Amino acid sequence: MAGRVRAVLGRLLQAVPVVIGVVVVSFLLTRALPGDPAVYFAGPAADAASIEEVRVALGLDRPLVVQFFLYVGDLVQGDLGRSISTGQPVAYDLANRLPASLELTLAALALSCSVAIPLGVLAATRPGSWIDHLCRVLVTAGVSMPTFFTGIVLIYVFYYLAGIAPAPLGRLDFLYLEPPHVTGFYLIDAALAGDWETWRGALAQLVLPATTLALFTMAPIARMTRAAMLSALSADFVRTARAAGLGPRKVLYGYALRNALLPVVTTLGMVFSFTLGANVLVEKVFAWPGIGSYAVEALIVSDYAAVQGFVLAMALLFVALNLAIDLAYTAIDPRIGFGAR
Amino acid sequence: MTATDPSAPDPSAPGPRAPDPSAPSGQSTAAHIAHVLRENPVTLIAFAMFALLVLAALFGPALAPHDPLASDAARALQPPSWQNWFGTDNLGRDVFSRVLVATRLDLAISVAAVALSFAVGSVLGAAAGYWGGWLDAVLSRFLDTIMAFPLFVLAMGIVAALGNTIENIVYATAIINLPFYARLVRAEVNIRRDAGFAQAAKLAGNSDLRVLAFHIFPNALPPMMVQVSLNLGWAILNAAGLSFIGLGVRPPTAEWGIMVAEGANFIVSGEWWLAVFPGAALMLAVFTFNLLGDGLRDIVDPRKRT
Amino acid sequence: MLRIEDLAVAFRTRRGLVEAVRGVSLTLAEGETLGIVGESGSGQSVTSYALLRLLDQGGSIRAGSVEYGGIDLRAASERDMADLRGREISMIFQNPRAALNPIRKVGHQIEDVLRTHARATAGDARRKAIAAMEAVKIRDAAARYHAYPFELSGGMCQRIVVAIALACDPRLLIADEPTTGLDITTQKAVMDLIVELIRARGMGAILITHDLGLAAQYCDRIAVMKDGRIVETGPSAAVFSAPRDPYTRRLVDATPREGASIRSLLPAEARTPPPPHAPGTAPLLEVRDLVKTFPGKAGPVHAVKSVSFTVHEGQTVGLVGESGSGKSTTSAMIVRLLDPTSGEIRFAGEDLAAVPARRFARDPRRAAIQMVFQDATDSLNPRMTARRAIEEPLRRLAALRARQRRARVEELADLVGLPGHLLERFPHQLSGGQKARVGIARAIALEPRFLVLDEPTAALDVSIQAVVLNLLADLRARLGMSYLFVSHDLQVVRLLCDHVVVMRDGAIIEQGPAAEVMNAPAHDYTRAMIAAAPRPPVREAAA
In what order do the strands lie in the sheet with C301-312? Predict the structure, then answer.
């Protein structure tokens, strides 16, 4: 279908100005550092001469526009600067730690969707019932819990009191060896290596932080599912289907839910934004060695190149995720690409 | 996001399914609010908790039994007792007093941030929604760029770049909230731009600006108020999250996020009260605003009104 | 075949139990077509949903019995009902586009029904679905099988809905306002198709409609409902030509039809002598070569292509066309809400198009040209009381003190027959007819010389339409205004207009004196439009 292809290309093109915007904003953030960036990058022991040297080396003595293009030039080569605290290139650090963050985020989202969508459907099929009210209170409570606080409470209950959770210190207890690096996702790597003991160890570490994140992201998904289901169930086409004698199961899942999932998919973008943000806090609480805790550590020591690199990387990741969601949407909604939306 | 409760058939909807209200009743707004509260007692609780929060913010410092900053090494890490309701922290400060006093700061940050984004977002969104054209295109691109960042991460970046102060926390929170208001107002204004009553207002001699400000914008206010309520909670979470990772508010100032951060170190050794009480206060505040937003939505949702 | 006795349906609402249907008894013989007619809120649709047990949440059958072919539908299990729906009794709905699943191919939706009732297997479902589509005269059915509802026109969607309903050869078809929302020429085609199919298959049918004329034309018998009760039942011709119930009589009177005058729409006791009406000959509004082109994604859209006509002092001109004909765009340009691409709008000799719409609010001639909007609900600000709405033009354009304004608003309310105590109400607290009056009062507040009426009665029930049309005729005589009456309904236009302009696809295809255009249309399209309108039997007693 030509219309569909055009819609996909159009969506890809739309991402271009957004990426440019993201780069501009992150450039401005780098240059808006309090005081003189050269002083920061030269380090605490620098004298006037070496500061000047850093200034010239970083191109900070050039006009802002030139600096921007230098910055873009560096970006294109994957150069995000060098971290003061680790001494490594920021891009290298981020790439190293990204799988940890992604594994946590995706596990949390999968958990959250698998609970929230059925919950929303259940609430929508019995509006006004106690299930509906309970669902509403539960998800509102979930989104009201600061993630860092939820994490701490879970640690207190399951680690300190019950003693069934492992110490909240990273991705894998020191008892186990890291699985051989393939994807960087411990669960997948351990499964590939057939090392089920390590797999269980990694899973045990993952459960609490993933639950923490999932609790936070359940609310928007459950609410959207409920609302979309309610409007789908009261839609005329559902009535037509019922009047034609289609069974309740077919009406509920084949007709209503499929339509209701479309707006749910759209909200996933917002959910991603929340998840990636909350990720930072959860990683700090659970000492999870992802890019979020990397950024927090960098913040403490005023390692700005690392922080700005992190912000940019997160934004690009988010843009890519949104793009994926929209493309998925294009694939499941036949109306896209015909100007009917 | 929560749709109207369909247990009450919607008489205003076109279509013959619901029975038509035989005569338009003179049901007042007050009666409507009473109905919503009756149907949903949770909202009533939310209003009560909100009042409590406001009281704590206004009179907290006067009511606090101890000086929130006074440390007493001899009484460090005491569990909750009659003397220290919420226990004491590692410096011997009274946790209850600190939690109480922090209400004002946390509420002030979120109210200031939300007010700022409300004002700026309203103006930008209304103009873009009404006039469209390049103004709309520029604003949309700008908002898209903001939304392209995971919002908390953007706030981190802004505070890190602008400097670690409370004002910058307010600005950062306002910036990440801005797209919600601007988009909401834009949409609400846009669907009413060509509404009959807007055209009628023009025929009555109103200029475009007057039509926008006095006829269209007021109709966008109810959904805005819902957004405000939900966002207040979110702004609190956001500010607390930033202080939790060491941005913005600095010790020894009493602030919920930073208190949880400090208390977190003691959780693994069992001194739960340091983190749990400020965390619970934080949660209660956010919970209140979220429930309030839900309740307001039920009240203002025109589909629920007869 | 179908016997309903003492049916009562109630809805649980916040104001307690609302009875939507009370004590309704109906019978339907094999192969008979029954029309259930009523205005909004009369309970006709609820009755039909109740017999299929498809009531909304909160609705329940309180009393009575529903028997179909010996089966007690009230007592049947949900499983039995599902088996019955679509196989024995089918239903088609208004707003066909919404009645179809938007993200499922129409062919598959027909297959779903066939498969549910075991009329088709995985192997032959497709062939049978295409056959069902051919049965409702969809050309090129094999290709349309893959279409999604949004790719089809409204009329085509309604054919698909009919195909779904008839796929399993039910014996009873219930059609709930099947033509609402369709253009008048499409309406006729869809109705003719439905009737042809049910006759050919010897099916029984129930047609639910607000249009007495439509029911009289297509049904054997008619039941008239009001406030949840049946007030009269009888053979179509008898109900129309000799109504026994006063409400039926009012409804028959109010239905615009050939040969009726504007006063004859009113109940007999309310018929006062018609207001004097003598249009002048001096031109008041001259539209010359008016063009509006919108930039579109696929090239420019020519909404209005060089339209010219004249409205004389005191004259009423009808602007008639189906949706998309450009009539609304033309009227928006004339009231100066929209700037024309080119052309002149000469009002009392001056070209109004010379002043941009953006600045026209401040123009001294603003008060002279006003408008009554199509949808009274949409045209009233939900946050303003009726008084504030009527007051608005006075505040902006008249130099009156607050006290004078108050008096003037009350005078206007009186003029349009709006009881004074309603002035403090908000739009959602007013009925449709009351809102229409508020809209008219606001439009005439500044005593305009020229009033554009944009389908002012399209959203109203016929009995209220009759009252509003008469009010407009009275006001015209009293205030000496000229009207431009925009409508899709030729029968309504004829009642009020001296001159008729027919538009199609942005151009005028015919214009002339009203009687001439109606009785001897020159253009095929005008002829088709006149022919498509339902032709109720003429009532002998109607004067």
Answer: C301-312, C283-294, C342-347, C350-351
